[in-house]
Backbone:
């Protein structure tokens, strides 16, 4: 996935990178409990391939993976801070 | 043998129709980087509007077959990509407010500052200026739009969709129309979100220049649902002049900033009162609080509205003051604010949003 920001800056992301960066509570953990991504070492190919991307309002993207995982809301500042 | 021309190739590709957009893929600009090499090999990029395009594979084989049949073509290379365009990108593309050009939210943070009064008069003033305007009451628990517009009828259902109520030249929809009478709506948070989404998706808003959205107080479910479901053009924040109101208005404004919704500016309501018997100007709730808060936050101050009996009376009678008493100070204030809001909104149309490409 490639994003061209308002200022013309372009950042390319791999599906794998985005999957491992998923900010949702299940993946990250919540209230001090560790999330799934800190427990697993590998993810299946369906988990690492993007199925769809939708805009959330105008502040974030919701990325759906082939595995059906789609709970991550990636805010624009978060995506800008992610580097390939 | 002569090499095929780009025109020939585009002519055959224009036979492919996009079923959702109802037009051919060439005029939709989906065919890009078309090249024919000296051996008659054709290559081009087929750019879809979503990576989850249900007809992706059919498009690809159709394109290969059609171009492959042109005399002189020795090979066809179709690169399938998708370019989702945020300005038009919606959670469910054709379902959420497809005909609405600008969406303006009216919020306050605090309750009782006159959000609905401002929203109704803002909508009516925009309508008077000649625009097509809708007004959505997103206050599920305390809907006041039906009373303020004198429209208490239940919406008609046509083909499974609700038709907005028409009053004063405005298209209206409120939970007060759907659930009339004195029975309360007793919902938990997630249901409120669903109800607001339904009023956007299941209501046939048609073509509108502006959809004004009257939000409930607070920085919770309703505001969040709205900011997530539609790309809002901007939000106008209403407050009264005293500190206790402006402080909360600032919180509301900061919430919308976090959600990347542009604050169009602050509106000061109940700014002053002219006593009808002595003619003196009283500043019951203080004065200028919104203007100084706007300065502090670096957002525009959109205007001040006086406290007038006429505004209240007309709201209770169901006619916005800008229609019933256009020469009153209150009506003039609303017309001024509407033009400020419209100007700020137009600037937003030129705003750049990030472009997302998925390969």
Residues:
């Amino acid at each position: 996935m490639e994003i061209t920001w308002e200022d013309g800056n372009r950042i390319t992301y791999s599906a794998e990178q985005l999957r491992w960066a998923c900010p949702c509570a299940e993946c990250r953990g919540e209230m001090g409990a560790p999330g799934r991504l800190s427990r697993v070492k590998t993810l299946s190919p369906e988990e690492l391939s993007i199925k769809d991307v939708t805009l959330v309002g105008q502040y974030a993207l919701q990325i759906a993976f082939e595995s059906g995982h789609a709970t991550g809301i990636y805010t624009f500042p978060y995506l800008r801070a992610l580097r390939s | 043998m002569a090499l095929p021309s780009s025109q020939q190739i585009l002519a055959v590709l224009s036979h492919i129709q996009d079923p959702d957009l109802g037009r051919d893929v060439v005029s939709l600009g989906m065919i890009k980087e078309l090249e024919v090499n000296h051996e008659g090999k054709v290559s081009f990029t087929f750019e879809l509007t979503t990576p989850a395009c249900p007809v992706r594979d059919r498009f690809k084989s159709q394109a290969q077959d059609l171009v492959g049949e042109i005399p002189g073509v020795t090979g066809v290379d179709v690169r399938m990509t998708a370019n989702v365009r945020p300005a038009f990108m919606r959670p469910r593309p054709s379902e959420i407010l497809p005909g609405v050009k600008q969406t303006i939210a009216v919020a306050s943070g605090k309750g009782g500052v006159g959000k609905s009064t401002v929203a109704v008069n803002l909508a009516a003033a925009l309508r008077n200026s000649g625009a097509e305007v809708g007004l959505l009451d997103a206050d599920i628990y305390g809907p006041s739009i039906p009373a303020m517009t004198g429209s208490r009828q239940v919406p008609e259902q046509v083909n499974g969709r609700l038709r907005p109520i028409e009053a004063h030249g405005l298209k209206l929809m409120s939970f007060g129309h759907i659930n009339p009478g004195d029975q309360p709506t007793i919902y938990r948070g997630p249901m409120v979100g669903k109800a607001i989404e339904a009023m956007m998706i299941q209501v046939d808003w048609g073509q509108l220049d502006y959809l004004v959205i009257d939000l409930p107080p607070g920085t919770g479910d309703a505001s969040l649902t709205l900011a997530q479901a539609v790309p809002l053009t901007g939000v106008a924040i209403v407050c009264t002049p005293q500190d206790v109101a402006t402080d909360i208005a600032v919180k509301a404004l900061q919430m919308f900033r976090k959600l990347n919704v542009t604050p169009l500016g602050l509106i000061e309501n109940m700014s002053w009162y002219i006593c009808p018997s002595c003619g003196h100007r009283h500043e019951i709730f203080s004065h200028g609080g919104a203007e100084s808060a706007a300065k502090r936050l670096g957002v525009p101050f959109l205007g001040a509205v006086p406290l007038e009996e006429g505004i209240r009376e007309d709201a209770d009678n169901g006619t916005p003051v800008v229609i019933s008493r256009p020469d009153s100070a209150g009506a003039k204030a609303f017309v001024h604010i509407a033009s400020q809001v419209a100007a700020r909104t137009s600037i937003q149309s030129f705003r750049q949003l990030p472009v997302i490409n998925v390969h």
